[in-house]
Design brief:
Integrase_cat-core; single chain; 156 residues; elongated; five-stranded antiparallel sheet; RNaseH_sf; 5 strands
């Protein structure tokens, strides 16, 4: 690693260590994303017909697209899995549109009396932050639940 790169990383508050070329356990979290990052940059360059030398121009857009792509299996973005916190988007919002405005959302039904009851119930969203949501239940009670237990109704 060059001295300039090491100084830049330190100035940004990023710790850097050495690892061996053939045993990169220290880079285990980053390795899967380096290939994804490179392919996304190449695709953006090709789409916008930009020379590869000018790739820095589309870097923030590329990073945002990768960070905001939701994995359907885990219901989190790769950025949230890697850093365990939500990141603001390019326009400053860190919540999806369906969590920003009050209205109906689906909530996981944890307590079911039998297997024929629905897995989700419709609740009314009142307030939200990146981690928790304040909702009104069908029986008119209001409670705070985790964002992880909610989903959009699919209506826009």
């Amino acid at each position: 690693m060059s001295v300039d790169l090491k100084n830049f990383l330190n100035s940004q508050g990023i710790a850097s260590t050495r690892s061996t070329a053939y045993n990169p356990q220290g880079n285990g979290q980053v390795e899967p994303y380096s290939g994804i990052m490179w392919k996304t940059i190449q695709l953006a360059l090709k789409t916008k017909q930009i020379q590869i030398g000018r790739g820095v121009e589309i870097l923030s857009t590329t990073l945002h697209s990768i960070r905001s792509l939701l994995c359907t299996a885990t219901n989190v973005t790769p950025h949230e899995r890697l850093f365990t916190y939500s990141r603001r988007s390019n326009d400053g919002r860190s919540l999806p549109d369906w969590l920003i405005k009050p209205g109906p959302v689906l909530m996981r039904n944890h307590v079911r009396e039998n297997k024929y009851q629905s897995l989700v119930k419709e609740v009314h969203l009142l307030e939200a932050n990146p981690d928790y949501v304040f909702v009104k239940l069908p029986d008119r009670r209001e409670t705070t639940v985790s964002v992880r237990h909610l989903a959009s109704t699919g209506e826009t």
